[in-house]
Amino acid sequence: MLNKKIMSVAAAGAAIATLGACTTDAVTGERRISTEAAVGTGAGAVVGYLLGDLIGGKNDRTEKIIGAGIGAVAGGAVGAYMDKQEQELRRQTQGTGVDVVREGDNLLLRMPSGITFDHNSYTVKPQFQSTLNEVAQTLASYESTYIDIMGHTDSTGSDSYNQQLSERRAQAVANYLAQRGVQPQRMATMGYGESQLLYRPDDTEAKREANRRVEIKVVPVTQQDAQRYGY
C-alpha cells in the first residue's frame, strides 16, 4: 500500500511546474511552498508530498521516540519550535546549495548530489561534511522531530541501479547523522530511484543535476501524536 501511495504522489508531482510553487522572501531568503501558486499547475502534489505521511507512518516511530525518553511538543509551541530550527538550518546551509523549504510546521532540506556525493558514489564528500555536521548538531538539539531521509536519482541508467543508488545515498546520510548524535529512533530512509523527478524529461545536465538529490524531511513530534498512539 505504501509503495502505491509513493508512486501515485510521484506521478502527480513530476511536472516541472512544481518548482514554480516555491516562493522566496526578498528580505530573509526564506523559501516556502505557495499553495495558491500550486492551484492549476500540478504543484499541489509537492505540497502533499511534503505534508504527507512519514515513511512507514508515525506509529512505530512514535513508540520508539517516546520510549527513548524524547518528549513531544505541546500544540501551541510547535510553530515556535520549528521556527527556531528553521532559522538555524538556514544559517548553517546559507551559500552551500542546500535548499530549505517550509510548509506549515514541516521542513524539507533538499541537497543536490553534486555537493553531497561524487558521481555514482554514496560516500559523503569531505567538503560537505562540515555543513552536514552543523545540520546534525541542530537536528540532535531539536530532538522532538521525526526525520525522513530520501534518496533520488535522475532517469539515466537502469531502474534497478538507480533504486539501489538512491537507497544507499539515503542510508549514508542517515548513518552520518547518527554518528553525530541524531537518534536513530527518529530516522527512516527510503530510496525513490527515478520515480520522483523534479524535472521530467531531464534532457539537460542541469535538470539531471536537480533530480539527483537527497532530501531530509523534518516533522515535529506533537503531543497529539503521542496521545493518538496511546503513549
UniProtKB/TrEMBL annotation:
Pfam families reported for this sequence: Gly-zipper_Omp (PF13488), OmpA (PF00691)
Keywords associated with the record: Cell outer membrane, Membrane
Any single GO CC term annotated in Swiss-Prot or TrEMBL for this entry: cell outer membrane
Keyword Ribosomal protein: no
SUPFAM superfamilies, per the entry: OmpA-like
Family matches, as Gene3D superfamilies: OmpA-like domain (3.30.1330.60)
Top-rank taxon, per record: Bacteria
Subcellular location: Cell outer membrane
Domain OmpA-like: 104-222
Name the UniProt record assigns to this protein: Outer membrane protein OmpA-like peptidoglycan-associated protein
Species of the source: Sphingomicrobium lutaoense
Organism lineage string: Bacteria, Pseudomonadati, Pseudomonadota, Alphaproteobacteria, Sphingomonadales
